[in-house]
Design a protein that fits this description.
- Chain A: Its EC number is 7.4.2.10.
- The complex is a heterotrimer of chains A (about 240), B (about 300) and C (about 280).
- Helices cover about 40% and strands about 25% of the residues of chain A.
- Chain A is of the alpha/beta class and about 240 residues long.
- Chain A has a single domain (about 1-240), classed as P-loop containing nucleotide triphosphate hydrolases (Rossmann fold).
- In chain A, helix 4 (about 110-120) crosses helix 5.
- Chain A is globular.
- In chain B, helix 10 packs parallel to helix 11.
- Chain B has one domain: Orthogonal Bundle (MetI-like fold).
- With about 300 residues, chain B is mostly helical.
- Chain B is globular, with a radius of gyration of 23 Å.
- Residues about 1-10 of chain B have low confidence and may be disordered.
- Chain B has twelve helices and no strands.
- Chain C is an alpha/beta fold and about 280 residues long.
- Chain C contains eleven helices and eleven strands.
- Chain C has helices spanning about 45-55, 80-90, 100, 110-120, 125-140, 145-150, 160-170, 190-205, 215-220, 250-255, 275-280, and strands at about 5-15, 20-30, 35-40, 65, 70, 75, 90-95, 175-180, 210-215, 225-230, 235-240.
- In chain C, a hairpin with a 5-residue loop joins strand 1 and strand 2.
- Chain C is globular, with a radius of gyration of 20 Å.
- In chain C, about 40% of the residues are buried.
- The chains are: A alpha/beta (about 240), B mainly alpha (about 300), C alpha/beta (about 280).
- The interface of A and B includes residues 50, 96 and 97 of A.
Chain lengths: ~240, ~300, ~280
C-alpha cells in the first residue's frame, strides 16, 4: 500500500529524515514512534507532498508518488493533523469544510455525502451548520477525520491524532478510528510519541530517533519484550 | 443511514442562518463598547446626511446671496453664511456627499488591490513575492501627500483625480497587511488540508486565504478612512481637490481662512465637520479592532 | 503542623457574550501542608485557574470570590497587590508548561538567574550571585553550567529550558511551588529527569508543591495526594498510593480509558459523563 525506500529529507542543510525505509501492507495499521524531532511527522508530510525537497522513493499502491497527479493522489491517501484547533478553517461551517474536497474533485451531491460522513463519525448531520469554535477538541478531530474520508481514500496518515486531546476524548477517537478501519477497510499509518497508543492501535511499529529508524517491531514483540535496542527499552520504561 | 431530509435540501439557507447567528453575537459584543457605538452613530449620521442632503438642507448650497455675505449664525442661516452669502449648513450637508464619494472611491479601489496583491504574494511566495513586495516598497517610500500632489498636478485638479491620487498611495499598507496574514495562513493545517484534497493555488487564495485576511483589512480600512478624509480635505484646501463651487469641506476652510478672525464660523464649521467624522471613523475602527484583531482576541 | 495553604470556597468566573458570568471554578476548598499535592483534571476543569488564583495572577477581567485564602498565615484575600507581588517574587513560585514563554528571550539564561537571585538578596555581590547561579544550574542537573549560563533561551532544548525555569524558581527558595503541566511539552525520557529534579528539591528544601496536570498516572506516581477536578469542582481527593481504590466514577473512568502497552485490544472504555458530577461536590 505504502512503500518508502531510502528516504532522505533535508531542511536548510539539516537532515530531518535519514535513509529511512519501510513498507505498509494493505489493511495494516503501522505505527511510527519517537520523540520530538525524530522525523516521524516529516515522513507523513513528505508522502503527502507538503515537503518539496526529498530523495529516495515513495510509492502508494505501487505507483511512484512523483508521477501521480495531485487530484488522483488525493483520492488514494489523506492525512489527519495533530492539532484539531488549527486544522479547521475558522470562517467556514463544518459542512462546507467536509464538502470542500468533494467540490474540488467534482464529486456529485457533496451535501448528501457530507451528512452521511457526519453520521459515520458519530456527530450527526445537524453539526454541518456549526462553526469550528462551537465544537470541542474531540468533535473537531472527528470533523477532521470526516474531511479526510470525504474522497474515500484507502490509506489514512494520522499525525498524533489524539495528543492535543484529553485522555477520555482520546479513547473515543481511538475507538472511532478502529471502527472506521474495520468498516471501510482502511490502512493506517499512525505517528505518535505515546507507545501505549501505538501498541493499542498498530500491528507493527517502527521506533525512530534523531531522524533515523531504530528498529521495527511487531505488536507481539513489543508486548513480550523481545526488543533488541536499548533506546526502545528506555522508551517503554519511561512510558 | 438516516439523514433528516430538510437538512440536506437547503444547505444554503442553513449556512446563512448560521452566519446570521454569528453576526448577532458579534453585534452584541460590539454594543458593549460605548465609544465604538459613538463612532458608529457618527458614521451612520454622516451616511444619513449624505443620503438626505436635499431634504435636510434649508438653502440651495450653490446660490449666492450677496446681501447676506458672511452673515452670522441665525434663524435663517443656522451656521452662518460664507463670503458669497451661501448657507454653510446646507453646504456642509452637500459636502458630506463629496467626502463619502472620495472615501468610497479610494476604499473600493485601494483595499481590493492591496488585498489581492498581498494575498497572492504571501501565498505563492518565491519570485512573485519578491516582485510584488519591491513594487509595494517603492510606493511606500514616496511621501503620501507629495505623490498625490504630483499626480493631481499632472492630471489636473478634481475629485476623481484626487481620489485616484490617494488610491495610489493608499494600497501598499493593505498589501503588506494581507501578505503578513497570508504568510501565516498558507502554512496552517487547514490550508494544507485543502491542498491535500487537490485544490489549486487560485482556489486556496480566493476561498481560504483571503477570507482570513479580510478582518484585518477591514479594521485597517476604518482607520484609513479618517486619513483619507484628511488628505482629501488637504488637497481641497490647497486647491487641488474638488473645485469651486463644490462645497468640499477642505476648500470651504480654505476660503474661510481669510475671515477667520472676524467671521470665525466660515472656517470653523467645516473644520468641526472634518474633525467629527475623522473621530467617528477612528472610534469605530478601534472598536472593530478589539473585536476582529486575532492578536487581541485572546481575552475571553 | 499548620497548613501552608488554605483555600475555602474559591469561585472564579468569566464574562460570557451575553453579559452574564460563567463560573469556571465553583467552590474549591483545599489545604496544603509541606507535601506534594497533585491537581488532576481535563481541559476546562478549572485546575490551572485554581493555581493562578492562589498566586494572584489571574487576568483582571476574571471575577474571583473566596471565603478564605491563606498562605502560611498571611491572609491573601486582604493582602495588598504589593505584598502579593513580593510573595510571588520570593515565597511562591510558578513553573509553566512551556519555558519558552516564561523566560525573557533577549537575556541570557545566566543573567536571568542572577537577576532572580539579586531580587531576593540585594546585598549579594556580582561574583557571589554568579557562583550561586552556576550552583543552581548544577543542582538542576545541567551538565555544562558555564556554557549554559551564557546561552539565550531559544538556544535551549525543551527539557533544558524547563530545568532552567525550575532553577530560577527554586533559587529564591520559595515555600510553595506551583507547577502547571511542567512536563507536558517534554519527551518521555526527559520528563523522568525533570520530575526527579523537582522531587529532590521539594523533599530536600521542604517546600509545598502543587502539581497541576491532566495525566492521572503521572501525578499518582509523583505526588503524595491527588485532587481530581471536574467542571470547576473537586470530585475526589485521595492519597496517591490508594488511587486504584478511587470511588468516583469520573476518576475511575479516567484511569480505565487509557490504553496500556500490554493492555487489551478491545474497544477502550469511554467516559459517560453524568450531569450529577458537575453538581454537588
Amino acid at each position: 500500500m505504502l512503500e518508502i525506500r531510502n528516504l532522505n529529507v533535508e531542511f536548510s542543510g539539516k537532515l530531518a529524515v535519514r535513509d529511512t525505509s519501510f513498507a505498509v501492507q494493505p489493511g495494516e495499521s503501522f505505527g511510527l514512534v519517537g520523540e520530538s524531532g525524530s522525523g516521524k511527522s516529516t515522513i507523513l508530510r513528505t508522502v503527502m507532498g507538503l515537503n518539496a525537497t526529498w530523495n529516495g522513493s515513495i510509492s502508494v499502491d505501487g505507483q511512484d508518488v512523483r508521477k501521480i497527479p495531485r487530484k488522483q493522489l488525493a483520492k488514494m491517501v489523506q492525512m489527519v493533523f495533530q492539532d484539531p484547533y488549527s486544522s479547521l478553517h475558522p470562517r467556514y461551517v463544518i459542512g462546507q469544510q467536509i464538502a470542500e474536497p468533494m467540490k474540488i474533485n467534482g464529486i456529485a451531491n457533496p451535501e448528501r455525502r457530507t451528512a452521511e460522513l457526519l453520521e459515520l463519525i458519530g456527530l450527526g448531520a445537524k453539526f454541518q451548520f456549526r462553526f469550528p469554535h462551537e465544537l470541542s477538541g474531540g468533535q473537531r478531530q472527528r470533523v477532521a477525520i470526516a474531511r479526510a474520508l470525504a474522497l474515500s481514500p484507502k490509506l489514512l496518515l494520522l499525525d498524533e491524532p489524539t495528543s492535543a486531546l484529553d485522555v477520555s476524548i482520546q479513547a473515543e477517537i481511538l475507538n472511532l478510528l478502529n471502527r472506521l478501519r474495520k468498516e471501510l477497510g482502511l490502512t493506517f499509518v499512525i505517528v505518535s510519541h505515546d507507545l501505549a497508543v501505538i501498541s493499542y492501535m498498530c500491528e507493527r511499529l517502527m521506533v525512530m530517533r534523531n531522524a533515523q529508524p531504530v528498529e521495527t517491531l511487531t505488536r507481539e514483540q513489543l508486548r513480550s519484550g523481545a526488543i533488541a535496542e536499548d533506546y526502545t527499552k528506555a522508551l517503554i520504561a519511561a512510558a | 443511514m438516516s439523514v433528516t431530509p430538510d437538512l440536506v435540501v437547503d444547505p444554503k439557507r442553513a449556512v446563512r442562518a448560521a452566519r446570521w447567528a454569528e453576526f448577532k453575537v458579534f453585534t452584541r459584543r460590539f454594543m458593549r463598547n460605548p465609544l465604538g457605538v459613538v463612532g458608529l452613530v457618527i458614521v451612520v449620521l454622516l451616511l444619513f446626511c449624505a443620503a438626505f442632503a436635499p431634504l435636510l438642507a434649508t438653502h440651495d448650497p450653490y446660490l449666492p446671496s450677496l446681501t447676506d455675505r458672511l452673515a452670522a449664525p441665525s434663524a435663517t442661516y443656522w451656521l452662518g453664511a460664507d463670503e458669497l452669502g451661501r448657507d454653510i449648513y446646507s453646504r456642509i450637508l452637500y459636502g458630506s456627499q463629496l467626502t463619502l464619494l472620495i472615501v468610497g472611491l479610494v476604499i473600493v479601489t485601494s483595499a481590493p488591490i492591496g488585498l489581492i496583491i498581498g494575498a497572492v504574494s504571501g501565498t505563492v511566495g518565491g519570485w512573485v513575492d519578491v516582485v510584488f513586495m519591491r513594487i509595494t516598497d517603492v510606493f511606500l517610500a514616496i511621501p503620501k501627500l507629495l505623490l498625490a500632489l504630483a499626480f493631481v498636478a499632472a492630471l489636473g485638479p478634481g475629485i476623481t483625480n484626487a481620489a485616484l491620487a490617494i488610491t495610489l498611495t493608499a494600497w501598499p499598507p493593505y498589501a503588506r497587511l494581507a501578505r503578513a496574514e497570508a504568510l501565516i495562513v498558507r502554512n496552517s493545517d487547514y490550508v494544507n488540508a485543502v491542498r491535500l484534497a487537490g485544490a489549486s493555488e487560485f482556489r486556496i487564495i480566493v476561498f481560504h486565504v483571503i477570507p482570513m485576511c479580510l478582518s484585518s483589512v477591514i479594521v485597517r480600512m476604518t482607520f484609513d478612512m479618517a486619513g483619507i478624509i484628511l488628505t482629501a480635505a488637504g488637497l481641497g484646501f490647497i486647491g487641488l481637490g474638488a473645485q469651486p463651487p463644490l462645497p468640499e469641506w477642505g476648500a470651504m476652510i480654505s476660503t474661510g481662512r481669510k475671515f477667520i478672525f472676524d467671521q470665525w464660523w466660515v472656517a470653523t464649521v467645516p473644520g468641526i465637520a472634518i474633525f467629527t467624522v475623522s473621530l467617528g471613523f477612528n472610534l469605530l475602527g478601534d472598536a472593530l479592532r478589539d473585536l476582529l484583531d486575532p492578536h487581541l482576541r485572546q481575552r475571553k | 503542623m499548620s497548613d501552608l495553604v488554605q483555600i475555602e470556597n474559591l469561585h472564579v468566573a468569566f464574562r460570557n457574550d451575553d453579559g452574564g458570568y460563567n463560573d469556571a471554578v465553583r467552590g474549591v476548598s483545599l489545604q496544603l501542608g509541606r507535601e506534594k499535592l497533585g491537581i488532576v483534571g481535563e481541559s476546562g476543569s478549572g485546575k490551572s485557574l485554581t493555581g493562578r488564583a492562589l498566586l494572584g495572577v489571574l487576568p483582571p477581567y476574571a471575577r474571583i470570590s473566596v471565603d478564605r485564602m491563606q498562605f502560611d498565615g498571611i491572609d491573601l484575600k486582604s493582602a495588598s497587590p504589593k505584598l502579593r507581588r513580593s510573595l510571588r517574587g520570593g515565597r511562591m513560585g510558578m513553573i509553566l508548561q512551556d519555558p519558552k514563554f516564561s523566560l525573557n528571550p533577549v537575556m541570557t539564561v545566566g543573567k536571568q538567574i542572577v537577576e532572580a537571585i539579586r531580587i531576593g538578596d540585594r546585598r549579594i555581590s556580582g561574583g557571589d550571585a554568579k557562583k550561586k547561579a552556576l550552583g543552581i544550574l548544577e543542582a538542576v542537573h545541567i551538565r555544562e553550567p558555564e556554557r549554559v549560563f551564557g546561552l539565550y533561551p531559544h538556544e535551549l532544548s525543551g527539557g533544558m529550558g524547563q530545568r532552567v525555569m525550575i532553577g530560577m524558581m527554586v533559587v529564591r527558595e520559595p515555600d510553595l511551588l506551583i507547577a502547571d503541566e511542567p512536563t507536558s511539552a517534554l519527551d518521555v525520557t526527559v520528563r523522568t529527569q525533570v520530575l526527579s529534579i523537582l522531587d529532590e528539591l521539594v523533599t530536600r528544601r521542604g517546600m509545598g508543591l502543587i502539581f497541576i496536570s491532566h495525566d492521572l498516572n503521572l501525578v499518582s506516581k509523583f505526588c503524595d495526594r491527588v485532587i481530581v477536578m471536574y467542571a470547576g469542582r473537586i470530585v475526589e481527593s485521595i492519597e496517591a498510593s490508594r488511587l486504584h481504590e478511587a470511588t468516583h466514577p469520573y476518576t475511575r473512568g479516567l484511569l480505565s480509558c487509557l490504553p496500556q502497552i500490554d493492555g487489551s485490544l478491545e474497544p477502550l472504555p469511554v467516559l459517560n459523563r453524568e450531569a450529577s458530577w458537575a453538581g454537588a461536590a
